[in-house]
Amino acid sequence: MNTSSHSLRLMPAGIDTYSHPVVYMHADCHVCQAEGFRALTRVRIDCGRKWVIATLNVVTGGCWLPPDAAALSDAAWQALQPGPGALGRLSHPEPPAAASFIRAKVYGERLAQAQFNTIIGDALARRLSDLDLAAFVTACSGDRLDFEETIALTRAMQAAGKSLNWGKDLVLDKHCVGGLPGNRTTPIVVAVVAAAGHIIPKTSSRAITSPAGTADVMEVMAPVELDLTAMRRVVETQGGCVVWGGGLRLSPADDALIRIERPLDFDSDGLIAASVLSKKAAAGADRVIIDIPVGTTAKVRSSAAAAALSARLNAVAAAVGLELKIHISDGSRPVGRGIGPALEAADVLKVLRRDPDAPADLRERALTLAGLLLELGGAAGTGPETAAQLLDSGAAEQRFMAICEAQGGFREPETAAHRTQVTAADSGTVTAIDNRLIARIAKLAGAPQRARAGVLLLARPGDRVQRGGPLFEIHSETPGELAYAQDYAARQPGPFSITELS
């Protein structure tokens, strides 16, 4: 076969395809015609010693892409890193071994450890398309993973990446399953536990379906994209860190699955357990506390659902060697006042700085979790008191600032340029706030992609409000996003329930 007849000049498309490698070829391209490539065909591209499998998008008509070139998306370009004028050889890839296993799972078959290993391996090698991964995520959703399969998936995800060893007898960690806007306890918990002298190397994710993830909030105040060497230096000097886990290759398959779960906008118990615990085990944790907020508009909606998730988490933790404590908390309402990265960061700093205006509910939740984690670390019966002392004395604030400096330098949160208030349609008492609706408004305002966007709560359940009085404030970085979020809020029955109580 003439290799040159299947080669094209490579050029950058300058298109962000959300970490998914895409190749663009003209419909008149001789390689397209010779190989029978069609739109969405999986194409292997070899360039020197590097290769990538990309999804084909076909360009038609006269345009920017000549027939003798192939344009690569940002992800494909970064994978190959071709030099100036480089040629890429394009061919059909071998069918991924995982495809038949995913098909079997779709049709309800149970998968074994080796099959999960193959699926995760093919996902990380980018042999699987987004359609393949979407089918896998869907087939694992609901109750379609049993406990043994969840354990197998967790082990496969951990084994596919690096695992840390801190050389310590005790490493603590925490996680919240999410679904509760503003519940940004992690930076406070890390500061308290590290100030107590424990090791807590916290790796966090960016938002999946929420207006902010812990990594998004922390990034407002300090760099979070650290490599393993930098992360280890921070933990060894300060006892703790709050970094983005996506660049550390600790359970890297989790990030590949999250990339699919985010646009699908759903989670499941099996995927939650595998995601959380594969990362905790890979990060070198020994004892972990997991917060499960329960509420009708939270991610976990009932006590029965919390019990089912807890049972699965406990079974997986025991199998992978983690000591786990589950904390069931109130998920009926948002926590704090800010919803969105910068607004939540401002709440965190108010608590750490003992500001008189600090949200009491965020402080209480953070101290509860920190106290429970300290007790896991050996402070039998004195965890909550120790946590409160470390916060009230300023030791936690001092340690948090030191962690930020060690991660690359502290920054004060900034505020959005565009704001508008949403007011009460009736007088009465606020009886509830819908977590999902208020989170949706914050996301439409631009969060988390725009760090200063979100929602600032001006009233809380139990507050008495007058008709025309402020309920919440929408923050946006652009007028268009502000108008979009405001219009959505105006069309809803309202995220606030207001009742005239007798």
Uncertain ranges: none
Within CATH, the superfamily of the largest domain carries the name: Nucleoside phosphorylase/phosphoribosyltransferase catalytic domain
- Just give the CATH class of the largest domain: Alpha Beta
Strand content: 15-25%
Architecture of the largest domain, according to CATH?
A: 3-Layer(aba) Sandwich
Tertiary shape: globular
Helix coverage percent of residues?
40-55%
Class from helix and strand fractions: alpha/beta
CATH topology of the largest domain: Pyrimidine Nucleoside Phosphorylase, Chain A, domain 2
Record field, number of beta strands: 18
Q: How large is the count of helical segments?
A: 18
Main β-sheet, in a few words? 6 strands, mixed, barrel
Radius of gyration: 24 Å
Mean of pLDDT? 93
Intertermini distance: 86 Å
Number of domains: 3
What's the arrangement of strands in the largest beta sheet? 1-5-2-4-3-6
GO molecular function, one term: 1,4-alpha-oligoglucan phosphorylase activity
Domain Pyrimidine nucleoside phosphorylase C-terminal: 429-494
Keywords: Glycosyltransferase, Plasmid, Transferase
GO biological process, one term: pyrimidine nucleobase metabolic process
